[in-house]
Amino acid sequence: MKTGQYGMYILNEKNAQPSRGRKRVRMKSYKLPLSWTVISFLINFHDFLISRRRKAGWLKFKEEKDILLSKIDPKRKAEIYNTTVLPAMICGCEIWAPTKVEEGKLETTVRAMKRAMSRNSLRDRITNEEIRKRTGVKDIIQEIRKSRIKWAGHVARMNDGRWTAKVLNWYPRDKRRSQGRPRKRWQDFIKDTCSLTWIQRAKNREEWNKINFRGIAKTTWVCQKANGQVYDLSNPQVLALHKLYRKEQIHPHQRGFELLKNPHLNKGLAFSLRERHYLGLHGLLPASFMSIDQQVYRTMVRIREQPDNLSKYILLDELQNRAEKLFYRVLIENVKELMPIVYTPTVGLACQKFGAIFRCPKGLYITINDNSISKIYRILSNWPQEQVKAIVVTDGERILGLGDLGACGMGIPVGKLALYVALAGIRPSWCLPVVIDVGTNNEKHLEDPLYIGLRRKRVRGEEYERLIDNFMKAVAKM
């Protein structure tokens, strides 16, 4: 579109002033008007703009250095800095679309200024967080986000046909995206912070002003769930819970068929097309897609078709060996129905027939032959999960009033930890079931060819107590 035919020209300067004369734009000379209306300016957010803002900040800092570098009250310094230096660095930030790298450059400049104001150097080994508390300087990134949120509400409420609102929803005619990562758009931050329907919400000024700070703080101090509930992360206890249970991005080291055999990562047909291509799963799964919710429904249909509780237990055990995420999703959504299957009373019957239904090892088996701290520690080190916070241990002597089941008592710690995950929200990777196998006095198990434990009478007395003591010391050493 030839904008010059309509009296519109592109200016690279935000603060250009009307004047007499001519101006060259792209090798052409144009007569400058005596007045104009700026609808926007060319957003070309490169290093030169960051450098200009940083230089402007340092110039203001040097103008006030006699005060900022003096020994006066830090609160007075912060007031002067926040009203002189900071505005110079964020001038025009309402229309910025900075990347993480560009935000980092601004933060680096501010950190250098704060260290100069606090009269500390890197040799003093004082953290940036401690210096920020001492100086009381505002967070530059937070101030930029506040300005952008405020300007977004102003633009959304424009209803007089101004170009600013029109340009907001503009897309190029050529819909093909260039190679590489998509460029950051101005709306991306607003959408991520205040949801995709931010324009409708911003048209109500009172409502927008209420969610203004909360929306900004979503990336810093507030966590907003999908159901609209907002948690104040300025509370240390709430912040600790948020860090504990927040979703994590997983970057698996396994690919292809090995990933499908990993129960911690396998999602079955819930892998998206992009994930299948990226993880080397294309062709290893059927062409259809099935969400986790659909898989939960299908699994519950299969469970309810089983003739008895033991068959249901075996089906859930196989599901846990194949897809751990789906197993816990099924258990959480149907905990009242499945709790008697996963734990008492069905787990007692499963322990009695554990040798016959044994499929995949779960947990660790420590025997009386490993009665030393070094051997037990080596066994604990074989566990694939590095961070263990919940250990359930049994020696299999008294299992739900069924007597001495020996190593077949592994079903008890496995079932108990499954309930810890489903009901208490503990991560499965933190759980470790352990059986201390010191033999069994159950003659039926000793004669059973399918028994999976030590075939000897149960060890008691001093040797048993030493094994328990060594186990506790090895666990404390982890």
What do you see in this structure?
The chain has 478 residues and is mainly alpha-helical. The chain has 5 domains: 1-42, no CATH class; 43-167 and 184-246, no CATH class; 248-287, Hemocyanin, N-terminal domain; 291-342, Hemocyanin, N-terminal domain (Up-down Bundle); 358-477, Malic enzyme, N-terminal domain (Rossmann fold, 3-Layer(aba) Sandwich). It is 49% helix and 6% strand. The protein is built from 23 helices and 7 strands. The chain has helices at 47-63, 65-68, 74-89, 100-117, 128-135, 140-156, 163-168, 186-194, 198-202, 205-217, 236-245, 256-260, 273-278, 292-304, 309-322, 324-333, 335-342, 346-352, 354-357, 373-381, 411-424, 443-447, 462-477; strands at residues 22-25, 28-31, 222-224, 230-232, 364-367, 390-394, 431-437. α1 runs antiparallel to α3 (74-89), α4 (100-117) packs across α5 (128-135) and α16 packs across α21. The radius of gyration is 32 Å and the shape is elongated. The N and C termini lie far apart (68 Å).
